[in-house]
Specification:
two-stranded antiparallel ribbon; mainly alpha; single chain; about 190 residues
């Protein structure tokens, strides 16, 4: 078997594994209802969404989007917006992955690059998440006026900050540790 084809199999297996890990990590959440409408969650899934991009490059966006979307299929509260979850969480992994992909081309991939990727992934995700929460959840689904819709966004800020900070803090060291283990095992993903 050629080296290139075996690396494709390893990357495909890693993609499937990261999709499964993102899916399972979505169950690690505390959901809090918001009085005006909707809900917010403290979750560890964003760590794995960022990590999938940091480990796999841009294709990691597929793992973060698919894993999160599959979770939405299992929960009646989220099933109607599975396609939005695929796009927003996928963009999170894609953003982190693009930073790592550019680093791989220059043979850089240390902590600062991982941190930059995690920050970019979270910023992209939260811009999309708050846009979705305002237009789709608050205005369209809940039928709220603009003022109350903005209040629902304000209620989501504490959980979003927690989720983003935890993802930014945890994903880069996890990425570096996993990359080292893969390198020692001669299973580097790049």
């Amino acid at each position: 078997m050629k080296k290139g084809s075996s690396m494709t199999v390893v990357r495909l297996a890693a993609l499937a594994m990261m999709t499964a890990l993102v899916f399972v990590s979505n169950y690690l959440r505390i959901t809090i209802p918001i009085n005006i409408g909707g809900n917010t969650s403290f979750t560890l899934a964003n760590i794995l969404c960022c990590l999938s991009g940091l480990l796999l490059g841009p294709i990691g966006g597929l793992a973060s989007g698919l894993g999160s979307m599959l979770f939405d299929f299992t929960d009646p509260r989220f099933i109607s917006e599975f396609w939005l979850t695929f796009l927003t969480k996928g963009a999170m992994g894609l953003g982190a992955g693009l930073v790592m992909y550019s680093a791989q081309k220059r043979s850089e991939g240390g902590y600062v690059r991982c941190l930059t990727g995690a920050i970019l992934g979270c910023v992209i995700y939260y811009i999309l998440y708050f846009t979705k929460s305002y237009y789709y959840n608050a205005l369209l689904v809940e039928g709220l006026q603009s003022g109350p819709a903005l209040v629902t966004l304000a209620a989501k800020i504490p959980a979003s900050l927690f989720n983003g900070i935890i993802a930014i803090a945890a994903a880069p060291p996890l990425c570096l540790a996993i990359r080292q283990g893969l390198k020692r095992s001669h299973l580097a993903l790049n």
